[in-house]
Design brief:
Structural class: mainly beta
Mean pLDDT: 81
CATH class of the largest domain: Mainly Beta
Number of strands: 7
Low-confidence stretches: none
Helix content: 10-25%
Number of domains: 2
CATH topology of the largest domain: Immunoglobulin-like
Order of helices and strands: HEEEEEEE
Strand order of the largest sheet: 1-2-7-6
């Protein structure tokens, strides 16, 4: 496979992972709508310069039916209904079908907490930038 970002390589150092992530996103987008995750709906919120949260509508799910995992910069939230419902519904408008949401997180993002608030699964994230990665001046000769 030809790397479309090859022309950028002479002016970049250490961006191999970034380019592979961009290629991965490009591949997912080219596959069409079958990878679009629309259920359940979710929000991504930037609270301030370092704090973010992901809110996922999980009405009808119990805590034990939800799973959150984090591996290799990928946050995965899964909902799997385990309760066989034997109620007789006259109308069932609250969907509780199984789902999986994947979120690619930056290396500097840590997951601070997760809780269910008002029918929303709220995952709090913090962007921690180490001192050595913050902008600074480089002195010449010292």
């Amino acid at each position: 496979m030809v790397n479309p970002y090859r022309s950028l390589l002479p002016t970049t150092v250490g961006f191999d992972r970034l380019f592979s992530t961009i290629n991965e996103f490009d591949h997912l987008l080219s596959e069409g709508k079958k990878y679009t995750q629309s259920y359940p709906p979710y929000n991504i919120i930037k609270t301030d310069e370092t704090n973010y949260s992901i809110e996922i509508a999980v009405a009808g799910f119990k805590r034990e039916e939800l799973d959150i995992s984090f591996e290799n910069s990928k946050l995965t939230v899964t909902g799997k209904t385990i309760d066989v419902d034997e109620k007789e519904y006259l109308h069932k408008g609250i969907g509780t079908r199984d789902f999986t949401h994947n979120f690619r997180l930056s290396d500097s993002i840590i997951i601070e907490s997760a809780d269910i608030v008002d029918g929303l699964l709220v995952i709090s994230l913090v962007n921690i930038i180490p001192e050595e990665k913050k902008p600074r001046r480089i002195l010449i000769g010292n």
